[in-house]
Design a protein that fits this description.
Rossmann fold; Gyrase A, domain 2; binds guanosine-5'-triphosphate; 14 helices; flat; 6-stranded mixed β-sheet
Amino acid sequence: MAERVSGDDTIFAPASGFGRAGICVIRISGSQTRAALEAIAGEVPAARVMRLRVLRDPLDDAALDQALVVFFPGPASFTGEDVAEFHIHGGLAVRQAVLAALSQITGCRPAEAGEFTRRAFLNGRMDLSEVEGLADLIDAETEFQRRQALRQLEGGLGDEAERWREEAIACQALLEAALDFADEGDIAENIESEAFGVALVLRNQIEAQLRNARRGERLREGFHVVLAGPPNAGKSTLLNALARRDVAIVSPIAGTTRDVIEVRCDLDGLPVTIVDTAGLREAGDLIEEEGMARARGQMAQADLVLWLDPADDPAPLPDDLGPHLHVVTKVDRVVAPVERGDIAIAAPSGEGMDALLARLREAAESLFGEGDALITRERHRIALIEACEALRRGCEQRETELFAEDMRLAARAIGRISGRVDVEDVLDHLFSSFCIGK
Ligand SMILES: Nc1nc2c(ncn2[C@@H]2O[C@H](COP(=O)(O)OP(=O)(O)OP(=O)(O)O)[C@@H](O)[C@H]2O)c(=O)[nH]1
Ligand SMILES: [K+]
Ligand SMILES: [Mg+2]
């Protein structure tokens, strides 16, 4: 990532999506925000009140657009700095003209991806877990993802982690007090056993959340369903039916699909990624071999494999299949009722599709489970596992000093969640995942 020119720069960028639209919001943040408002909108409007203004080119005073203008003085703004928004007409030429006008203001430059949010973090307006919640909210594709992201943006994880961190610090303080009273045996012992109790309760609370961790992470990423089976089993036909669009090539030629094709679907709010793969068989050219290797790789990582087994040409289930549903396809091609498998479908006519969807939903729900997970990223999980380890080790120490040191380490590990410690490595990665203007 490029070095930032200077922390004092005033940055600007369109905050709404690209392309032609009714309105485009251009956001400005930094010490030159007032200057930019005066130069382009003619005045600095009262705080947090929208005003209709003609925007003008600061060089020749030519009108650029009619816009709604709003000013958020720092520190009570999104970034903590002076912030303004121009709600201009969303045409490409209008946007270009206003951005060009902003470039002419001394100290103003276009923002990098995530730079507004980075400033909000650095100015203490959001903690790291809230920044992640914001990133997830912008990326949320389904209702469940939206809810989880919003909870995190509102501090669901950050507040809890802060409470845990304070408990660990309180425990460390108790142990240090016990050291001070080391000469008076009873007092020291009582304090130490109180610390022991605090550490134990804390560890139980964190472990309870860790049990939900995979669920939170999987909800962010989506439930992974892999379609597998012999060539011509109807995998691509089923993918197209589930995606409700023509994503993959379907043909009567065995070995049509070679690459892995992924489609993200919304199953009543649950995010599901459906993966189509190359048909598995003995023979094949080099490309087909590679396709089958990829198919096997996908099957190994799947949350659920749908093994497709054509009614008119039975394909036995592989031995080492993990969680799966045995789906008999092309049931319209046989006269006798199908006696094998978990479910029977004919995707082109829609037969059995409602039942298949219900089974998929059941499987996804049992993975995602009930209730709300706080932990949504591997980063959180690793920090909390480390904290639990320090809490456990501390309780087993014979020396009070070592017990206290482990509590300090536990607090430090928990502190990584909100970005109080060791954040630099996370920051660049996280902010670069944002769009420009956020
Ligand atoms: N009659 C009938 N034909 C089907 C059904 N499902 C798929 N087909 C046909 O079966 C053929 C193979 O379907 P595909 O979806 O390409 O099969 P595939 O499993 O993706 O095949 P590969 O990509 O080659 O591994 C196509 O001609 C489909 O139209 C079905 O339920 N009934
Ligand atoms: K085919
Ligand atoms: Mg196919």
